[in-house]
Amino acid sequence: MRRRTCFNANETAGEHAEELHDLRSSEPSSQHDRSLSINTVNLENLLRQVEADRANLHLGRFLPSVGDRPITLAHRCRSGAVHPIRSRRICVVPKPYQQPHPKLFQPFSVSENTIRYTAQSDIVPWILVSYPTDFQRLCRVYQQVAGEAGRKLGLGESVGAFRAVHFGETEAEAVALLRDTNYAGFQKYFGGFGFWEAMRTPDDAERYPLTPTYTPLPPHEWTVDRLRKVKYGIAGTVDQVKREIEELHTIGGEGELEWFGWFFDQGFMSWEIAERQLELFSRHIIPAFR
Questions:
Q1: Residue 47 class from Cβ within 10 Å (0-12 exposed, 13-18 middle, 19+ buried)?
Q2: What is the mean pLDDT of residues 192-201?
Q3: Chain centroid to CA 111: how far?
Q4: Rounded to an integer, what distance in angstroms lies between the CA atom of residue 82 and that of residue 150?
Q5: Could you tell me if 233 and 182 are in contact, meaning their C-beta atoms sit under 8 angstroms apart?
Q6: Gap between the Cα atoms of 79 and 81, Å rounded
Q7: In the prediction, which pLDDT does 35 show?
Q8: Which residues of 155-188 are buried (b: 16+ CB within 10 A; e: fewer)?
Q9: Which pLDDT belongs to residue 19?
Q10: 54 or 151: whose pLDDT is higher?
Q11: Count of other CB atoms within 10 angstroms of residue 98
Q12: The dihedral formed by the CA atoms of 29, 62, 119 and 204, expressed in degrees to the nearest 10
């Protein structure tokens, strides 16, 4: 299983908002479909051209745009005046060290529509939905759609999962660290962008239905216990953490997850605690899944 540490996810909140539209509506509007298609094609086309070091802004089915409006690049001078820039190319400086370039990642994937799109486009979805049966179902959807697109994959291959991991001498100590760090971020910031919707359980469908009228999880449901119940928040001793990651890795005993992302709480804990968390992960978790 490959590993990736995500230190900050603020920049992906807008992308997650698009994901939530698909959760809230089983039949998105044609306007939304068109806007999402334009933005998706633009983004994927642009990233693949950057990857190939030939990012010409005018290639693709659509001109660069946000909704129906072309992208406008501008430069603010010292005087405060803003002047438009006619940009022709976008490139990465310095060039990526790894060759060939890694696959494209789709951060915080939630909706089935996104899972299907990434499977068709050979993109790795980082699935934020964590409840085991729901996560396993999305992994099977990815495998099936990838197969239909000519990519024969094992269950969990080319799929990533984000989890918050916290170690403690005791389970209570680890849960307290989860509460003061990752949970605090969800409670005070990410919840405002709808990220708690990825923490649903099957029981929520009756109390907070998605259709015909979308009912979001109310704030009193935004709890540490929910993060742990859906298996997003992994907190405990080294042995407890290892067992939960093993269950995730095997995808219910039927597959093998290729990518694991640790949502690491840099800035929410002291350097000494952060260093200890990294040490325990590198010493006890990474060797178990090589």
A1: middle
A2: 94
A3: 11
A4: 48
A5: yes
A6: 6
A7: 47
A8: bbbbbbbbbbbbbbeeeeebbebbbebbbebbbe
A9: 53
A10: 151
A11: 7
A12: -30
Pairing of strands 69-70, 73-76: unpaired
- 13: exposed, middle or buried (C-beta count within 10 Å: 0-12, 13-18, 19+)? middle
How would you class 273 by CB atoms within 10 Å of its CB: exposed for 0-12, middle for 13-18, buried for 19 or more?
middle
Closest listed residue to residue 260, CA positions, set 147, 165, 119, 132: 165
H-helix or E-strand spanning residue 65: strand 65-66
Q: Is 70 left (phi over 0), alpha (psi -120 to 50) or beta?
A: beta
- Whether the ω angle into residue 218 lies within 30 degrees of 0, i.e. cis, is no
- The 8-class DSSP code of residue 170 comes to S
Contact indicator for 236, 140 with CB cutoff of 8 Å: no
Which tokens in the block code for residue 234?
A: 């992994």
The structural domains of the chain, ordered by start, are 2-289 (3.20.20)
Q: Please state, in angstroms and rounded to a whole number, the distance separating the CA atoms of residues 133 and 136.
A: 5
Question: What residues contact residue 230 under an 8 Å CB cut-off, 6+ apart?
Answer: 130, 131, 199, 200, 201
Residue 27 has what pLDDT?
A: 40
Q: SS3 for 90?
A: strand
Burial of 68 per CB tally in 10 Å (0-12, 13-18, 19+): exposed
CB 262 within 8 A of CB 281: yes
Residue owning tokens 């990220």: 195
What value does the mean pLDDT take over residues 37-52? 60
Residues 6+ apart with CB under 8 A from 9: 107, 108, 190, 263
What is this structure's pTM?
Answer: 0.77
Residue 236 CA from chain centroid, whole number: 23
